[in-house]
Amino acid sequence: MSNCVVCQRTFFQEISVHSLFTLKKKSVCEACRKQLIHCNGCKRCRKPKRFGPFIEQECGDCIRWRKLLAVDYLDKNISLYEYNDFLKTLLSHYKYRGDVAIGHIFTFSLQAVICDHFNDYVVTTIPLSEKRVEERGFNQADELIKGMGIHQCLTRNIGKDDRKQSKKTRYERISLVKQNPFNLVEEEKSFIKGKKYLIIDDIYTTGVTVRMAAKTLLEAGAERVSSLTVARAIKG
What we know:
single chain; alpha/beta; Rossmann fold; four-stranded parallel sheet; 32% helix; globular
C-alpha cells in the first residue's frame, strides 16, 4: 500500500519494470494520473492540435515566432503534459508552498525524455533572481532534475522586471524579446561554444523565456538549443 503524494489517499501500487520509470515510482494514484494529459501536437512545441490553427504539423504560435525572429532561437520544445487546472494546482503547490515532493513525481519522466531525445546535450535550467530564490527557498527547475548534473551557465540580469511570469500579460512577456533578462555566468563563457543545450523549466507559456535563454546561449556560440518542461500552456 502507498499514499498518493498528490491527494494523500491510500492505494495499492503494483510493482513492475514499467512502474520504475513512470509517475508510479513516486506513488501517484490512478485517479490523479488520469488527470495528467500527455502533451502532443506541434512538432516544434507540443501544443495540442485541437488548439489550432496548424500548418504542416506546426502551430500558429511557432509560425508567428519564426516571422518575428526571422530565425527561431529555439530548435524545439518538449512538454510532458497539458497545463490544465489539475496540473496548474500541482505546480502552484510545488512552487509557492514548497512542496518539493510534487516536483519530484515528474523527475523520472523528464530523465527518460533526456535519455531518449537529448542524450548528448548539456542540461541547464532557467535561473531565478535572488529575490525569488529567497521567497521559495529553491529554484523549481533545478529541483525537477535534481541529481542529474545541471550545468548552470545562465544568470538573471540585475534590475530587469522581476515580477512573476504568471502576473504578466502576454504583451509584457513578448516584450522580453527586446529586453533579454538573461546573461552568462562569466566562468562558463569559454565552455559553451559548439555544444548543444537543453533548457529545463516548469511551464512553457508563450515560449519567450526559453527563447531568450536560448538566444543568450547561441550568441555565445552554442550549436543548438532546445527546451524541456513539465507543462505546455494551452493559451500561450
